[in-house]
Amino acid sequence: MALLTEIEAAEAHLERLKRQAVAATCAEVGHRWKFIGGSNAGCCDECDCSVSVHECEVCRDCDYGEPERETVIKDCAELTALNL
Fold this sequence. Notes:
By secondary structure, this protein is an alpha+beta fold. It has two domains: 1-29; 31-84, no CATH class. Helices cover 50% and strands 18% of the residues. It contains three helices and two strands. It has a two-stranded antiparallel ribbon. The longest helix is centred in the first third of the chain and has 22 residues, at 2-23.
């Protein structure tokens, strides 16, 4: 009987958490990113490096290619140095 009571309490707690998640901000539960295109990484004038850009389906925040942009810029600089 105690196990059944614990299960019912756990299910009730889960339902409360689900209701809270629906009302929560993306910062609390995570963005739901969708791919919306690409953007120039801004490495240098000689390249056409790009990064994927995503937008949150809920709050419409945009990642502008971060954190991928930092890696692309670093890799581009290394390749440019090798080609000099």
